[in-house]
Amino acid sequence: MLPPHHFPPLLLSSLLLLSVPALLLLFPEFIPQSLPLKNSRQHGVNDLNLLRRAVLSPPSTSSFRQPRQPKIAFLFLTNTDLYFTPLWERFFQNNTNLFSIYIHLDPSAQLEKPLTGLFANRFVPAKPTQRASPSLIAATKRLLAAALIDDAANEYFALVSQSCIPIHSFEFVYRSVVSDQRKRSFIEILTGEPQLWDRYIARGEDVMLPEVSFEQFRIGSQFFVLSRRHAHLVIRERRLWRKFRKPCLPTMLDCCYPEEHYFPTLLSMKDPEGCSGYTLTRVNWTDTSDGHPHLYMPPEITPQLIQELRQTNDSSYSYLFARKFSRECLEPLMAIADDVIFHDQ
Questions:
Q1: Domain with 178 in it: what CATH number?
Q2: Which first-to-last residue range defines the signal peptide (predicted)?
Q3: Distance, CA of 223 to CA of 327 (rounded, Å)
Q4: End-to-end alpha-carbon separation of the chain, Å?
Q5: Number of structural domains, the chain?
Q6: What pLDDT digit, counting tens, does each position of 233-270 carry?
Q7: With a threshold of 0.85, does the pTM exceed it?
């Protein structure tokens, strides 16, 4: 065997690079439990560096020799104020060690007042977002990467928006997600939808080939709860992302919703058995407008509405979150928070 000084420099460098991920997999406890975020509204972040850092995070809390209490990371994707922070803070109350909060705020957004309490200093590096573009996928990837880096105990990742609200207590939500025997991701994966072909060819008829055939293309809700292993899969993935980041044709913008396609298509192709196939976020599509779902207004906020929003077609699970609520709904929602929303009987 050659002495160390006789090894070619390139070979030594390659061995060192390969040894780092191997050590992290064998001894994940050497990674700090919390890698601090820069708690300010940063712009111009290098996405590739952020994703590379996240790839080195532990793939699962079960990989630690000393088991840690799993957390749910709540990922707020917004381009406005977070209207319902008082309701969410009531939701999180007394459960400090079981959740984390991360906020991707569009750089163009102007907050009316600083976020305080649990939401203070929870911004992740952000870039502009826009409908009918892959920017919402990129923003979600940033949120996932930041949450993976920040806390190794984050085991599930719930994507929500500024118009989303919880419709159960935290205890109910935590139990429903974390105690799932199969450790699945809760993401909607649909095929056979009426507009599926138009959405598939939104960038051009053959653009998605050969990586994604029409038979593999899926549709689903933008909002989901991913397991940590699937969050790792998303931030590592490059092949499909190169296709979905291509711009849609100007004539197909009404079919261009890449954030509703990339995640369900990727997980359907890579691990369909590890996914529930349904979302935990209730949306009312009975009266859509310009691609937006029904917007609930204050007169509609009643105990009966909350009960209806929880109901699914499958008695084995309940919706945990709902959207889309106008900012004026905060007061009537707070009025029924303790007795209805966070009362699970």
A1: 3.90.550
A2: 1-26
A3: 19
A4: 70
A5: 1
A6: 999 999 999 999 999 999 999 999 999 999 999 999 99
A7: yes
